[in-house]
Design brief:
This protein is of the alpha/beta class. The chain is 18% helix and 22% strand. The protein has 14 helices and 31 strands. It has an eight-stranded parallel barrel. Strand 25 and strand 26 form a beta hairpin. The protein is elongated, with a radius of gyration of 27 Å.
Length: 711
């Protein structure tokens, strides 16, 4: 392609002239099909809609002021259908903020909550005011700012990686670098995360999943417990779906909101790292009947929320309200939102919190073919974007393996988490399910086997994880038998009780070398299994160096050392980091782990499981040890790719026999041994690998990985 560097300007201006005057401002009907506020050369186009409302007013504010300096009612001539649109001429976007007032009936029993005195935030706002300083509660109503998008992405190509090729690293933007030990200049911000890109490259991950970065008010539910201020730290109560969280920016970005985030995404992409956003379309920050009314309730409560026949809120989210996702207007908003983040921020994927809600009817009942899920799966703009469902909700619907996926949606594989956690800590009855899980959960998603009822796309449908923001860190998983959420202020009643954890002999912190040795071996076991499982691996930031939350498995409100990554542990547990990095690079080096390759030249089966004797392929529910073998021909490398993973959860030595490589056409080499050797080595690079002739003695509670090499 020939590159041009010329800038073109039109020979003549496009004529847009005022047609009237309101409150001293020249105006005319606007562009009714462009939602939100859009900067134009002549002024600003404002477009909103309300189905049950009877009139609307645009409010203009000086920066930081709560009383409008101008009120512009929308004339009836500026309305088409339910849509109001107006161009206001001569506005300088850097000199005002805006909001709306909507009038209409107030009949709570019918779900109608209109109040013409309420100042309402634009549901399509690209930036929200008053949120720029973390932890500072604003006395001002929510206002919006007009954003002028001048960021130049150049010729940045959209990633074409398959989901199964990703290693996903889930992180909280603030918590990742807020601790003093992070060593970055801009702690707790998008810029701070950007400073850590070299670290991410060294670790080897190729995708980050950012916990909510849509605008939220962390002070909304602020309270004090034992002298500590608790905030809505995680950010799962969305205020505005189209606005980046301004307190995550290191500088104030008046009318350029999102620039720092875009710079972060650009640099991540330039370093081969994709960006997935954790999005919350199941509820909003407006809460239940006692919650505030600052946007959706005031525009169209009956449209945006699921309501009971008497006008109360269904609460399938566990957070007070439930977004009415399959209403056509809400569907359109969600689609526009995802398109906006895909086009304007070049986001590579979305993880949908409590995604089963997206498949409920307006009365809350499940739908067989939810129109929203089908719409997102088939939208042309989103066609290459990863769609990942948390396939359950707080209303009791659990859809792991049965989510309406349209061969496009992937799932957080909750069964993988539960079965592997249980088996690794010694729940021997989990053996068969653990074997299925390591092999890619073909019984749920297809893959090596037949496609699963046409819903799923095989290994691209399965997100394997053992830890995430919700629950124990990997270190805590092997340091605590019970959750310790006392600091949350709910008497330790919050958070899951089903953790399948094990403290390895001492609850919490200890100096016992035997306990610590076992804990870190169990962490290595978990890492090795995760990285050698079919499907897409995901783990929580800090797991790679033993970060702890001190037993808190629901740290949603802990904006402090409980949730912030302590980077001092990176040096303290450097050998653990090196192990994680090795396993990540090993997975990326061996394509046979993540997908079915052409048949191996040596004649080995493409994938099989067996007990300790490789000649016995039957794995029983109560086995304490088993192996998984992957084999295929790697065309890119021109040779067979052979990987054998053996797991011993027994507390004694177990002798295993290795599979035969095509009538002695090659040998197995020990690449990983989580029990370590006499020199304290847990993995071996290619030139250091130990050839294993036929048998191998596995130490108690250990994992071994062998690489096959043909002659």
């Amino acid at each position: 392609m020939k590159i041009y560097n010329h800038t073109y300007t039109p020979d003549y201006p496009i004529s847009v002239r005022p047609m009237g005057e309101i409150a001293g401002f020249p105006v005319r009907p606007g562009s009714f099909d462009i939602n939100g506020a859009t900067a134009l050369p002549v002024g600003v186009n404002f477009t909103i809609h309300t189905h049950y409302g009877t009139s609307a007013e645009l409010l203009l504010f000086h920066k930081g002021e709560d009383e409008p300096y101008a009120v512009l009612p929308f004339p009836e001539e500026y309305k088409i259908g339910d849509v109001y649109s107006m161009i206001v001429f001569g506005l300088d976007i850097e000199k005002f903020e805006y909001a709306y007032r909507i009038d209409g009936p107030y009949e709570p029993e019918k779900g109608l909550l209109f109040d013409k005195s309420k100042i309402l935030l634009d549901p399509y706002a690209r930036a929200v005011t008053g949120q720029g300083v973390w932890g500072c509660q604003s006395e001002q109503h929510y206002h919006a700012r007009v954003v002028k998008d001048i960021f130049d992405w150049g010729e940045m190509r959209q990633s074409n990686r398959e989901l199964s090729d990703l290693i996903i690293y889930e992180l909280h933007v603030r918590g990742f670098t807020k601790h003093e030990s992070s060593g970055v200049e801009h702690k707790g911000t998008f810029a701070g995360l950007r400073e850590k890109i070299p670290y991410l490259k060294q670790l080897g991950i190729n995708a980050v999943e950012l916990m909510p970065i849509f605008e939220f008010d962390e002070t909304m539910t602020a309270r004090e417990v034992d002298g500590k201020r608790l905030l809505d730290y995680w950010g799962y109560n969305t205020v505005s779906f189209f606005s980046p969280n301004s307190s995550y920016a290191s500088t104030t970005e008046y009318n350029r909101e999102g620039t720092e985030l875009k710079e972060l995404i650009r640099d991540l992409h330039n370093n081969g790292i994709e960006v997935i956003l954790d999005v919350v379309f199941n509820h909003t920050a407006e809460g239940n009947e006692q919650g505030p009314s600052f946007s959706f309730k005031g525009f169209d409560n009956k449209v945006y929320y699921m309501l009971t026949p008497d006008g109360n809120y269904y609460n399938f989210s566990g957070c007070g309200n439930t977004l009415n996702c399959n209403h056509p207007i809400v569907r359109q908003m969600i689609l526009e939102c995802l398109r906006y983040w895909t086009v304007n921020y070049r986001v590579d994927g979305f993880r949908f919190d409590l995604a089963s809600i997206l498949g409920r009817k307006e009365d809350g009942s499940p739908m067989n073919n939810p129109p929203l899920l089908e719409l997102l799966a088939n939208d042309p703009v989103l066609s290459n974007v990863k769609l990942i469902a948390e396939a359950w909700d707080a209303g009791g619907m659990y859809q792991v393996g049965s989510f309406p996926a349209s061969c496009r949606w992937a799932e957080w594989n909750g069964r993988y988490r539960d079965s592997i956690r249980g088996f690794l800590k010694g729940d021997c009855w989990e053996c068969t399910t653990a074997a299925w899980s390591i092999c890619g959960s073909g019984d749920l998603y297809g893959g090596f086997y037949q496609e699963h009822n046409g819903r799923y796309a095989g290994y691209n449908s399965c997100i394997n994880f053992l830890t995430c923001h919700d629950g124990f860190t990997l270190y805590d998983l092997y340091s605590y038998n019970e959750k310790h959420n006392e600091g949350n202020g709910w008497g330790n009643t919050d958070g899951s009780n089903d953790n399948r954890s094990w403290n390895c002999g001492a609850e919490g912190e200890t100096n016992d070398p035997a306990v610590l040795d076992l804990r870190f071996r169990m962490i290595r076991n978990a890492c090795a299994v995760l990285m050698c499982s079919r499907g897409t691996p995901m783990f929580l930031a800090g797991d790679e160096f033993g970060n702890t939350q001190y037993g808190n498995n629901n740290a949603y409100c802990q904006d402090n050392e409980i949730s912030w990554l302590d980077w001092r542990l990176l040096e303290k547990n450097r050998d653990l980091f090196e192990f994680f990095s090795f396993m990540i690079h090993y997975r990326r080096e061996h394509a046979v782990i993540s997908r079915k390759l052409p048949n191996a030249v040596c004649g080995m089966m493409a994938m099989h499981t067996h007990e300790t004797d490789a000649n016995k392929e039957t794995v029983l529910d109560n086995d304490r040890a088993f192996g998984v073998c992957f084999a295929g021909y790697d065309r890119k490398k021109g040779r067979d790719d052979l990987v054998y993973v053996a797991i011993n959860t027994y507390w004694e030595d177990v002798t295993i026999t290795l599979p035969e490589i095509g009538r002695n056409r090659g040998f197995w080499y020990l690449t990983v041994n989580t029990a370590g050797d006499e020199r304290g080595r847990y993995f071996y690079r290619k030139e250091e690998e130990v050839r294993i002739e036929h048998e191998f003695i596995m130490r108690p509670r250990s994992v071994a990985v062998f690489t096959g090499r043909t002659r």
